Fold this protein.
Amino acid sequence: MAHCLQPLLLLLLLQLLLRSPSSAARNRCVDAAEACTADAQCQRLRTEYVGHCLGRTASGDCPRARCRRALRRFFARGSPALTHALLFCSCVDPVCAERRRQTFVPACAFSGPGPAPPSCLGPLDACEHSGVCRPRLLAFQASCAPAPSAPDGCPPDQASRCLRAYAGLVGTTLTPNYVDNASARVAPWCDCGASGNRREECEAFRELFTGNRCLDGAIQAFDSGQSPVLQDHPDSHQHSLLQVSSADGPLKGCSLLSMLPVLALQPLL
Ligand SMILES: *[C@@H]1O[C@H](CO)[C@@H](O)[C@H](O)[C@H]1NC(C)=O
């Protein structure tokens, strides 16, 4: 291998990559990633979904079904304190929000295979015929949909149930994600453009995600409750990548190529 960088140089490079430009404001999504890295089970489950979701099938596509199954396992088996911190970390700048948007490998788990989002009716019908998805959608509707008769317009004591139900949809045909890096808006990858005479049904479904103040409120409230888990990792910026890279053996291996997977993982860790 001709590209033989000094280990020290590589370390330096990694540390530079790790420092977000806005290091003044704590990046809670980085904190959440560090906390997951520090927990053996969370780290293992995350490595598993990242591996599947960045993988390729023989035909060159992403193995969406495997990726999504691994994501469901991540949320089913990982400690909610850690998995929810990754999913709901609050951001004040686009660097953080972009990282949050990328955390669950949206290119495989969320969007595609086509370039344009389908009508929501397709994934919605698929969900209603799926033993995995249907109960999760029902739980999401019951826990997150506004309830006009309740005093604050949301189901009673709904915030944590709503977040759990939302997390339950990640890895289904209705996998939601943050739609951009400028807001905390979430939605599945679909729209209601071509929904014909079922447009109302389609819009009602989409509004469970976009402009749902019960869901938005629950996501915002999450942040105030999450600090205890993450405060254990105050000096976190340096070590996550180093731990990952040392999992591939010490940096003395002088192939730059062997570093590339680590760099590709960086937004996810
Ligand atoms: C935010 O998203 C826009 C549009 O996708 C993109 O061009 C920009 O690079 C992103 N910002 C960051 C900090 O990643």
Q: What stands out?
A: The CA atoms of residues 31 and 235 lie 9 Å apart. Strands lie at 176-178, 186-188. The chain has one domain: 27-264.
